Amino acid sequence: MISISPNDKPKWSLNDNNQKVEFISNMVEKHLIPKFSANKEWCDFFEYLSSNNVFTQSGHYYRYLNTFGTITARLGKIVDKTVVETGG
Predict the structure, then answer these.
(1) With the C-alpha atoms ordered 57, 59, 64, 66, is the resulting torsion angle positive or negative?
(2) Is residue 46 a contact partner of residue 9, using CB atoms and an 8 Å limit?
């Protein structure tokens, strides 16, 4: 897997609704961490996203973590593959 630079910044605005940010963070802790925490690639991705408030304060945070977790759970180690998130 190619690492993402910590300097890469998404182009959307931050979510300034603290209740929404807290709700999404709680959902990640309750549902995604128990489900995917045994997967090293997911943990690396989670660590990267969690270290940057541009991601944690985005409505995409849960979706990105869940999508990546599902992909890695099904494919195993991501080798010679590119994961493209196109939104919806």
Answers:
(1) positive
(2) no
Structure tokens at 31: 């549902």
Does 12 score more than 80 pLDDT?
Answer: no
pTM attached to this predicted model: 0.76
- What gap in Å lies between CA 14 and CA 17, rounded to an integer? 9
Tokens of 36: 């995917």
By the 8 A CB rule, do 66 and 60 touch? Answer: no
CB-based contacts of 81: which residues, under 8 Å, 6+ apart? 75
User: Cα–Cα distance between 62 and 80 in angstroms, integer?
Assistant: 25
Judge whether 41 and 5 are in contact, CB under 8 Å.
Answer: no
